[in-house]
Design a protein that fits this description.
single chain, mainly alpha, 368 residues, 70% helix
Amino acid sequence: MLPTQLTCRGTLSAFGRFRRRPARCSGLQMLLEQEEPRSATIRRSLLPSVVHARRRFSVSAAAIVNAAPGPVRPYLRLMRLDKPIGTWLLYLPCSWSIALAAEPGCLPDLGTLALFGAGAVLMRGAGCTVNDMWDKELDRKVGRTAARPIACGDVSRPQALVFLGGQLSLALGVLLCLNSYSMALGAASLSLVLTYPLMKRITHWPQLVLGLTFNWGALLGWAAVRGACDWSVCLPLYFSGVMWTLIYDTIYAHQDKEDDIKAGVGSTALRLAERTKPWLSGFGAAMTAGLAAAGLQAGQGGPYYVALAAVAFHLARQISTLDVDDPEDCWKKFVSNRNLGLLLLLGIVAGNLWKERPEAGPQRTPSN
């Protein structure tokens, strides 16, 4: 009996020690815990995805980039292919303009939308490459950007320059598919793409220059469909897009306030500081007024203005609930602008379908 009891006790003791021993973390779990994310909430939201990674197949942009061959991956990250929100924010003003320019009662041209989608990916990537080439030293001083490919040495500046040339060449190929008016108009935006990254060094309003750059598609989309700009529609639409960029990129800049001060660069987040919400409210009112004017000039109907009311509500809620001192909240508010842009696009398409198609004129009978 005694040997049997001793054996049982030994087994139970070993089992107890096994239960008390912490489970060995996977490499990714350890990495998540070592990187010290901005808040415990972020870590708690990330860890479940790690635990269930084997059960789910991820098709996110980041997963696609991570699955790419090693030598290609730094270049995909350089063009921010793993973070598509910027591409969406560049593309949406193009889609608004294309949809507004469609014939009454018709859907926007899908080929033109696809062409501008490819152009948005390439030009956003080119802009990020230029930005990182200019900001190599600044990016090393900011925690959020220190791991960017040029800043951390994965891609050299000469390599980035060659890559930039490839992106711009492909973007030129997209531009050459458009009419001559659109080609000239598109080429005119290149100066903004190249100089925007310098603005944070000389002004507290780089977000304004970004707005002028990012919303060029509001002019280009209409021109690609109609052959020229109708300035009574395109200018208020462009103005609204600039105001929108001032809203979402000011929110975005509040994540980096401390790092920007250390690096000695400017932003509207630093310039507006505690007055951010009143200023954002003013930008939102100006954006809504501009969109109303563009819709009026384009002959939009009820569905468009219902969507515009929903956009105004989204902006009001976004601004009123914003906590500029919480980076996680700023990121959520920033990303939510994709849904705002899609909502407006849906309103434009529905408003256009609401219109009656113009009746064909009487057929002329040939004279004998």
